[in-house]
Amino acid sequence: MGYRVAVVGATGNVGKEMLNILAEREFPVDEIVALASRNSLGTEVSFGDKTLKTKDLAEFDFTGWDIAFFAIGSDATKVYAPKAASQGCVVIDNSSLYRYDPEIPLVVPEVNAEAVDNYKNKNIIANPNCSTAQMVVALKPLHDRAKIKRVVVATYQSVSGTGKEAMDELWNQTKGVFVPGQEVAPKVYPKQIAFNVIPHIDVFLDDGSTKEEWKMVAETKKILDKSIKLTATCVRVPVFVGHSEAINVEFEEPLDWQEAQAILREAPGILVVDKREAGGYITPVECVGEYATYVSRIREDSTVENGLSFWCVSDNLRKGAALNAVQIAEVLGKRCLKKG
Ligand SMILES: NC(=O)c1ccc[n+]([C@@H]2O[C@H](COP(=O)([O-])OP(=O)(O)OC[C@H]3O[C@@H](n4cnc5c(N)ncnc54)[C@H](OP(=O)(O)O)[C@@H]3O)[C@@H](O)[C@H]2O)c1
């Protein structure tokens, strides 16, 4: 016996990937519905070898449905997630709306699977920001061994993290650069993204950081350990899919690169590709469509006590969003919503 599952935002980047991953991982589904805005009524989306016709979220009654994967913006989530939750359906939400609510669990299964049990507080579980998810998967096993004091991270985030319109903007600008008179003005981003990098993701805060940078700090503390100090610089790069991160860590205890590599090789969700030669590392195009968080370039940082640097890459639509959400549902199924 399986679950009755709703995918909300099924026409979007994350929603489509959610449907792919539910099918790939053979999530026990008895019935599945694809929901989006009224504009997408009847739009066909794929679920394995089946085709689903998208329904209007505004008209949908979640009574009798077990799990709803939400992948729409925060404004629409604010309207529809509480409705679904109050109708008895467990919401697993990809927006940032509920991540910092102390009553709502924020879960990366490789790190804090047991937090799923607190879904009962509001019938909602939050999925973290894409850049946080892959980073905490890599940090957790190292933290367990040598206790992290401080993290300095710079991100190189793909445009799919902003949604489907941003992918179109990169594509059209890239073509336009080569055709005189067909240059495409920035619309989704404040500056040209093609052949450029933009050190600005989400809104600016009073201290000069951005909300994306703040999210990495707040979410790492909530998921992994509130004592960890973290500073981030988040940068948008002209890559379609796959977020990369240059991570520098200071530990309480010594940890050499060989041991860090061995620990990461055994850790759940991680693949180490670290050959210390040309091409012996992972780049974002190689992680597209994969489940793993890849770690490369592991090396000691002798400028601080017990320092280590590494490179971390993952498919932001998968581990950064849809895969993590489906893994949460798998944990929920095992621990809380047993069927059959
Ligand atoms: N992309 C990532 O890497 C990533 C990672 C983590 C979290 N997230 C979060 O996941 C969510 C979705 O992101 P995305 O990248 O998939 O965006 P997207 O490609 O722009 O897709 C947005 C989806 O939301 C639907 N939608 C928007 N407003 C709606 C409304 N009022 N009622 C019903 N459906 C509505 C759209 O339906 P229509 O097609 O009908 O407009 C579409 O299916 C966002 O909250 C985002 O912050 C994204």
UniProtKB/TrEMBL annotation:
Binding residue positions for NADP(+): 11-14, 39-40, 160-161, 316
What pathway annotation does it carry? Amino-acid biosynthesis; L-threonine biosynthesis; L-threonine from L-aspartate: step 2/5; Amino-acid biosynthesis; L-lysine biosynthesis via DAP pathway; (S)-tetrahydrodipicolinate from L-aspartate: step 2/4; Amino-acid biosynthesis; L-methionine biosynthesis via de novo pathway; L-homoserine from L-aspartate: step 2/3
Q: Enumerate the active-site residues.
A: 130, 243
Q: Which residues make up the binding site for phosphate?
A: 99
Q: Which InterPro entries does the entry link to?
A: Asp_semialdehyde_DH, Asp_semialdehyde_DH_beta, NAD(P)-bd_dom_sf, Semialdehyde_DH_NAD-bd, Semialdhyde_DH_dimer_dom
Q: What is its EC number?
A: 1.2.1.11
Catalytic activity entry? L-aspartate 4-semialdehyde + phosphate + NADP(+) = 4-phospho-L-aspartate + NADPH + H(+)
Q: What class of enzyme is it?
A: oxidoreductase
Keyword Membrane among UniProt keywords = no
Residues noted as binding substrate in the record, renumbered to the chain: 157, 236
Which GO terms label this protein's molecular function in UniProt? aspartate-semialdehyde dehydrogenase activity; NAD binding; NADP binding; protein dimerization activity
One GO biological process term = isoleucine biosynthetic process
Q: Which SUPFAM superfamilies match?
A: Glyceraldehyde-3-phosphate dehydrogenase-like, C-terminal domain (SSF55347), NAD(P)-binding Rossmann-fold domains (SSF51735)
Transmembrane recorded as keyword: no
Q: Which part of the chain is the Semialdehyde dehydrogenase NAD-binding domain?
A: 4-119
Taxonomic superkingdom: Bacteria
Instruction: Supply the alphabetized keyword list.
Output: Amino-acid biosynthesis, Diaminopimelate biosynthesis, Lysine biosynthesis, Methionine biosynthesis, NADP, Oxidoreductase, Threonine biosynthesis
Q: Which family does it belong to?
A: Belongs to the aspartate-semialdehyde dehydrogenase family.
Q: How does it assemble?
A: Homodimer.
The record's function comment reads: Catalyzes the NADPH-dependent formation of L-aspartate-semialdehyde (L-ASA) by the reductive dephosphorylation of L-aspartyl-4-phosphate.
- Write the protein's name: Aspartate-semialdehyde dehydrogenase
